[in-house]
Specification:
11-stranded mixed beta sheet, calcium, 23% strand, 7-stranded antiparallel beta sheet, PH-domain like, Recoverin, domain 1, lipid degradation, 29% helix, nucleus, alpha+beta, phosphatidylinositol-4,5-bisphosphate phospholipase C activity
Length: 736
């Protein structure tokens, strides 16, 4: 990567300042300074960077798209709520140099300690944080400060002993390799070493056969175990000599356990592993509510950043509320509120640029309140950018297409004149139905149209309006929005190509009163659930109870962190993060007897037992905004989400003043009746006896994705981003 590169920092269409950007020699810090004054303006650590986007993939860079080509533009996205850094390089080559260089630096952090390079990079980062006077050395006082920063409350005599053991030069300071020795002594994993020695005859190495025994007995690997053992040695053993002898050292063993293969999440399920040839209604679909909003529902900011973030997070069902705007320009915003507005054409452009470069799975898009008159023409003009991917229905097309058939398509949900069959056979003459959507916008639009039809307009103008309405209607193919009038009515008169939207309250009542009918309904037709209008703060309802009856499109406010979004991320983190998860067989059967509230309807083999031994934690983060020098008292809570009979939680005791390497060694046990619907959430909290515990980190996954054995759980922050190298070490057993 080049250093001292002159680039434009862009904050808006009118604010574009030239700055020099430089990667420091430590390969961990980037600073930038003003070209005019030469003063350092800011600096950030590579560990603060979540991802790097190429091209015009931010609202700011889209606003200057006519001025700067996409190949010169890129966006640095930070963890948490820190704003993006939008940059324009002097050339495409310069931009690529920075993009690729940054990606290489940040990519290994997802699973830390998997190589000597990552380990040393992390060590160097800690060294710089503690080196107060920046002289490249660390005295004992600075070491004590480091321990506080790392969430360690260590006996001073023990800390001094570790310091002196690492000070090979006897200079009273640590530098270079001496600090590496100190760090390794500090991070010694006694519980892992004990496990290693249990399977090692000489206590120093695992032979190929000993590693195979461990993989079979503890990790329950039963296929191709010898080949797997060889792969793990080649991949994680740091010593060339040991690799040549096909043995694994204690360091290599630890690296394996901290790796992707040693994670609690089955690595085979991270890729696309499910059947993708089923009808659309047979999948849970990652879905957002009012996607354009990044704050509250009343006065919040509307931004295309909401669409970019949702798509990058795996969302596949977006909401676009389109309304009349000034000068005939349709605008997207939350109708009848004070939220800001964004042009419809910018939303369409963003979806085209962002989505198709990252996925081939279909993208249902929720559209309500189609604009009137001239703005309809603008809307249709904007939609032409989607033509290469839109699904045009021809004679003989299926009324219930499979996910595979819809690949590379965008589906529009909205009102439609006539049924899908009318679209296949020719123009329809059926009056459009009115949805029972959350803000009543579609109903209002129908009333407005009726009023227009009753006025004294010329026949030519009226014909033009009707033609435009038909043209928009023709864009709605497989997701015609219809009101819900009961399951019997739907079974008698509805079609698989239709969809109804229900409020969370209405859905709960149906779950309570007609749970089995709801499951059957969702086996052949789509249902969308949306948040209550009372959730003006953009809070979320629990999606689990909606998934329990097979609702496919459970729309959440993606901008609001919390348990609900943890569950959403946990469910859709599998299957290649494509945004589609196949429902279990008993939820795809139109004659199923399954009712999540009635245990007698469950036809499975009986409850299974999930046993979790919570062993230890590693380098847990401090609580946000905590006092300087404060050290957490961590506890672990395991929560089960699923059918009502499976909802449960248990927690460990708290460990006082140790966020660095707490040891619990406690066993928690759960009975799970419907594992196909269960989600497991691991939560770490800072215990507080006088008030509510503070959140530290969490990780959520579907039960089907759990890998038994000794596993690491790599924790995520409140907003779902990784916080390396924070993790839990557990032992998992599943028995019937």
């Amino acid at each position: 990567m080049q250093q001292g590169t002159l680039m434009r920092k862009v904050k808006s269409k009118s604010w574009k300042k030239q700055r020099y950007f430089k990667l420091q020699e430590d390969c961990m810090t980037i600073w930038y300074q003003s070209k005019r004054t030469g003063k350092t303006e800011s600096a950030f650590s590579i560990s603060d960077v979540e991802t790097v986007r190429e091209g015009h993939q931010s609202e700011v860079l889209q606003s200057v798209a006519e001025e700067f080509p996409p190949e010169r533009c890129f966006t640095i996205v930070f963890y948490g709520r820190r704003g993006n850094l939008d940059l324009v390089a002097g050339s495409a080559e310069e931009a690529q140099c920075w993009v690729q260089g940054l990606r290489q630096l940040i990519e290994p952090r997802s699973f830390p300690l998997t190589s000597a390079l990552v380990s040393r990079t992390w060590i160097r980062d800690w060294f710089q944080k503690a080196d107060k006077n920046k002289d490249g050395r660390m005295n004992f006082k600075e070491v004590q400060r480091l321990l506080k920063m790392m969430n360690v409350d260590m006996n001073e005599d023990h800390a001094l002993r570790l310091f002196q053991d690492a000070d090979k030069s006897e200079s009273g300071t640590l530098e270079g390799e001496e600090f590496v020795l100190f760090y390794k002594a500090l991070t010694q994993r006694e519980e892992v070493l004990s496990l290693f020695q249990e399977f090692s005859e000489d206590g120093k190495k695992l032979t190929l056969l000993e590693l195979v025994d461990f993989l079979r007995e503890e990790q329950l690997e039963d296929e191709g175990t010898e080949e797997l053992a060889m792969e793990l040695i080649d991949k994680y053993e740091p010593s060339e000599t040991a690799r040549a002898r096909h043995v694994l050292s204690a360091d290599g063993f630890l690296m394996y356990l901290c790796s992707l293969e040693g994670s609690i999440f089955n690595p085979q399920h991270r890729a696309l592993w499910q059947d993708m040839s089923q009808p659309l209604c047979h999948y849970f679909i990652s879905s957002s509510h009012n996607t354009y909003l990044i704050e509250d529902q009343i006065r919040g900011h509307s931004s295309i950043e909401g669409y970019i973030r949702a798509l990058k997070r795996g969302c596949r069902c977006l909401e676009v509320d389109c309304w009349d705007g000034p000068n005939g320009e349709p605008m997207v915003y939350h109708g009848h509120t004070f939220t800001s507005k964004i042009p419809f054409r910018e939303v369409v452009s963003t979806l085209g640029k962002t989505f198709w470069g990252n996925s081939s799975s279909p993208l249902p898009s929720m559209g309500t309140s189609p604009p009137s008159s001239h703005p309809q023409r603008v809307s249709l003009s904007c939609l032409r950018v989607w033509r290469p991917w839109r699904h045009w229905v021809s004679q003989g097309a299926s009324l219930s297409p499979t996910l595979q058939e819809l690949k590379h398509k965008i589906l529009l949900k909205g009102k439609k004149i006539g049924r899908l069959k009318d679209t296949l056979d020719g123009p329809g003459d059926e009056a459009p139905d009115v949805s029972d959507d959350d803000n009543g916008a579609e109903a209002e639009e129908e009333r407005r149209r009726a009023k227009v039809k009753g006025t004294q307009h010329g026949s030519a103008l009226q014909k033009d309006k009707e033609t435009l309405a038909q043209a928009l209607s023709d864009c709605v193919i497989y997701c015609k929005n219809v009101p819900f009038r009961g399951f019997q009515e739907a079974r008698s008169h509805s079609r698989p190509s239709e969809i109804s939207s229900l409020s969370e309250a209405k859905a709960r009542k149906l779950i309570r009163d007609e749970g089995n009918e709801f499951v059957r309904h969702n086996a052949w037709r789509l249902t969308r659930i949306y948040p209550s209008g009372m959730r003006t703060d953009s809070s979320n309802y629990s999606p689990q109870e909606m998934w329990n009856v097979g609702c496919q499109i459970v729309a959440l406010n993606f901008q609001t962190a919390g348990t609900e979004m943890d569950l959403c991320d946990g469910l859709f983190s599998q299957n290649g993060c494509c945004g589609y998860v196949l429902k279990p067989p008993f939820m795809r059967d139109e004659e199923t007897l399954f009712n999540p509230s009635d245990p007698s309807s469950w036809e499975g083999p009986g409850p299974i037992t999930l046993t979790i031994q919570v062993i230890s934690g590693q380098q847990l983060p401090k609580v946000a905004n905590s006092k300087e020098g404060a050290i957490i008292d961590p506890l672990v809570r395991v929560e089960i989400y699923g059918v009502p009979a499976d909802q449960a939680h248990q927690e460990t005791k708290y460990i006082e003043n140790n966020g660095f390497n707490p040891h619990w060694d406690e066993t928690l046990q759960f009975q799970i009746h419907v594992p196909e619907l269960a989600l497991i959430r691991f939560v770490v909290e800072d215990y507080d006896k006088t008030s509510r515990n503070d959140f530290v980190g969490q990780f959520t996954l579907a039960f089907a994705n759990i890998k038994p054995g000794y596993r690491h759980i790599h924790l995520l922050s409140k907003d779902g981003t990784s916080i390396p190298p924070s993790s839990l070490f557990v032992h998992i057993r599943i028995t019937e």
